[in-house]
Amino acid sequence: CVILDVQAACQDTTVTQELLKEGFHRDLLVKVELGVVEADAGGCAVAARTRLPPGIYVDPYELASLQRHNLTKAVLIPDVIDVEAPEYLATDLLVLLYLEPDPRCSRCFRAALPVHGRYHRPAEDSEEALVVLKSPEVLVCCCDNRLSAECWKPVEVEAPCLGKDDVPCQWYSVTHKPASEELILQIPVGLRQHSSLVCVVTLLVTVLCSSLILAAVCKYGHFS
């Protein structure tokens, strides 16, 4: 009975994620409600560690601009990202997203991260590619060690705990209950049977534009 009670108590932390906006450029909103921290979580730093699949990426230059304006805080692993690579040449991206306290709830934290869809190969019979986002891992670092040993376990995180002079510290992970197991992003793709038509139209447009440019140069150009 004691084991069951401990397991039930450790399932109180919940995490939800939501994709805002439409199209290739979205905002990933992550919300966490802690349930195993005594009193309130005002003295804790909370982060969500998530692995983004090759179908989406975070623009490091955009992220740096947002961090300079204190609009978000995140660590990318690796920190060098090819934003031009298509989905089939890209790799997974590990993101540690620091969450901000929600003023409406003492145990609630949230943050948004801009993500972008990559180019996908044309499909056979569908005009959409599905990118699946797994539920993130919730990490917590508290200043006064109020974490329950039954619910939290130490984890290795090469990142500072905010508010502690940006030095590496001990993070803890909890087994949470996500509101939904997966979040699916639908990215528009072309159909493979249209490849020939696209190639022909592209070639004709290229020839037409080149001819117009050449005609303009011959008519208005000044040759010495």
Automatic annotation (TrEMBL):
Alphabetic keyword roster: Endoplasmic reticulum, Glycoprotein, GPI-anchor biosynthesis, Membrane, Transmembrane, Transmembrane helix
Gene Ontology BP term (one): GPI anchor biosynthetic process
Segments passing through the bilayer: 195-218
Pathway in which this enzyme or protein is active: Glycolipid biosynthesis; glycosylphosphatidylinositol-anchor biosynthesis
Main location as per UniProt: endoplasmic reticulum
GO cellular component: endoplasmic reticulum membrane
InterPro entries: PIG-X/PBN1, PIGX
Protein family membership: Belongs to the PIGX family.
This protein's name: Phosphatidylinositol-glycan biosynthesis class X protein
